[in-house]
Amino acid sequence: MKIHVENRSCFFFSFFVICFSLLIQTSHQQNTTCPFQYIYHFGDGITDIGNSIRVLPFGPFLPSTRPPYGTTFPGRPTGRWSDGRVDVDYIAADLGLPNIVPYLSMRGSTSNDGVIFSVARSPVLNPLFFKLKGVDFPPYAVPLGGQLRWFKAYLSSVCSTPQECAIRLGNSVIVLGDIEGNDYGYPLAQGKSIQEVNTYVPFVIRALIDAATELIQMGATRVVIGGSVPVGCYPYILTALQTNNAAAYDNLGCLKSVNDFIVSKNQLLQEAVTNLAAQFPNVGVYYGDLYGPVQTIIQQSSVSGNMTLKACCGIGGKYNYNSRRFCGSRGVPVCANPNEYIYWDGLHFTQEAYARYTDIVAQPFLPVLGCTSN
Question: Are strands 100-102 and 284-288 parallel, antiparallel or unpaired?
Answer without folding.
Answer: unpaired
